[in-house]
Amino acid sequence: MENEYKKLFNSLVDKNPSDKLFEKIILRIGKEEKMQKVKRRIAVFSLFLVISFFGFIYSFVMVQNALISSGFAQFFSLIFSDYNIITAYWQNFVFTLLESLPVFALVVSLSMFSIVLGLFAFLVKDIKFISSNNLIDKKHGF
Amino acid sequence: MDNESDEKLVEYFRSGEKKALEVLVFRYFKVIYNFCSRYVGDVNVAEDITQETFVKVWKNLNRFDTHKKFKTWIFQIAKNTCIDYLRKKKSIPFSNFEDEDGTNNFVDNFVDNSPLPDEIFIRKDLSDFLEKNINELPVNYKMVILMYHKNEFNFREISEIMDESVDTIKSRYRRGMISLRKKLNGYKY
Questions:
Q1: Domains delineated in chain B
Q2: Does the pTM of the predicted model rise above 0.95?
Q3: Side-chain-facing half-sphere of B10: CA atoms under 13 Å
Q4: Residue pLDDT, tens place only, B4-22
Q5: Cβ–Cβ of A7/B121 closer than 8 Å?
């Protein structure tokens, strides 16, 4: 009886998938591998974005304090109060302004700002990639 | 690498040999495709489910216990992927599932051990004829029968794949075979 069934089920012909199925599977695994890397990168970038955002806030406050303590704010306000004197001695005024500029704090703050923008741009790009792939998966019912 | 066992290939993959996964995919993609197409009854979505199955295999390969049989494991994943798909499509009629105690009134318990009619084996369209009759069985019966006869699993392995007890699987097999026998015997030649 067992042999009879064996014979019977051996006659059941398997369907052939499309010629490209093997390649499709390998490509899909490759895509998933990339997705996994992107997801990891999103996690790391998000952490760095939060850190650098707080860093930027801190550096911004640092610039504000430095502008006040270096006298830059007072020198700068002369433009509005003593415009005629400033125009007469503009070269000295510019030199004084530059001298009182808290360069280090400004460089740190601008660097932090550019890091925040850069990370944000990368994150948007990666999130777009993930969401477009998720849409494809949903389309296929998974 | 082509002649290595599945479990050995998994070990190669874990040690960084990406080619090992390709060998495993090549070894199983047709059989998994056929399993999925019969499970969901739709050849058009079977390719997508097959792809999804292999993605799951790739994702979980590091967690696979190499002391177990890879073939059983991959069929288990394929079965779960088919169920996920069918659940989302809500296309499994509840009548296709019998109770845990095997209650389902569509067959009696009579086991027919008489030989199959010789006419069956001389049919030119035997494959289509058998496929049609098997497809008329409830999905759980159909898959147990196919896994046993077509994929050469034993009842214990099928019970692992289907996540059911061995007795339930045996009961499904018996009931499925009785129903199939009735269909085959009842055919007018």
A1: 6-89 (1.10.1740.10), 94-185 (1.10.10.10)
A2: no
A3: 20
A4: 999 999 999 999 999 999 9
A5: yes
